[in-house]
């Protein structure tokens, strides 16, 4: 069960090799979390992540999970919940894609959309239903400020995150009063392997800073968390700029 400050004792991570997800998991283990399920495609990276978390004192299980196989989500994720209550689900999988390549290759663009949106809708609904059935829990969804307004530089990725963000907000409204808490996390540019080599955006942050913001959001039972917090004001201004002006910005 979660403690009085909203921190989980058991955690299911969808996207078990995500650097942000692992930073969140390490922080929660240092506080209270004792049981972790890392869900992802079988790989040496997933096994290595599990070993590192076990060394921190957690009981860690790996789960074969593929965001692009929604037909298998109910069976795969449902088995986790049959092993006992899950206090928190962290939905952290996703792919950035390559905008220039994906514009030329619709199949690659669809893969980004299916991973970031379709797969998340499927997994999110399966987990939300299981959390509701047990009567408690948090679903934390890693969104992105890229979803606030589509930019020329990454509108394929941004549009998929916009869909995910809208879905998570609506799901949170649907679950209000059921005992299930949905929290949407909107980081800006995070320094990870996924963004290595890309020009660094203003207000860039780290996985550890996102983890700290997630912990604070859980304690406060926040519905939306911006990382860093200043991005809330920045993105509000950008969202309301006239399109002709926005189009000329170097973003």
Automatic annotation (TrEMBL):
Which GO terms label this protein's molecular function in UniProt? oxidoreductase activity
**What keywords appear on the UniProt entry?**
Oxidoreductase
Alphabetical list of Pfam families matching this protein: adh_short
User: EC?
Assistant: 1.1.1.333
Q: Does the keyword Oxidoreductase apply?
A: yes
- Supply the InterPro entries for this chain: NAD(P)-bd_dom_sf, Sc_DH/Rdtase_CS, SDR_fam
Key word Oxidoreductase present: yes
What NCBIfam families does UniProt report for this protein, alphabetically? PRK07904.1
The similarity annotation says: Belongs to the short-chain dehydrogenases/reductases (SDR) family.
Question: What is this protein's record name?
Answer: Decaprenylphospho-beta-D-erythro-pentofuranosid-2-ulose 2-reductase
Which source organism?
Streptomyces althioticus subsp. attaecolombicae
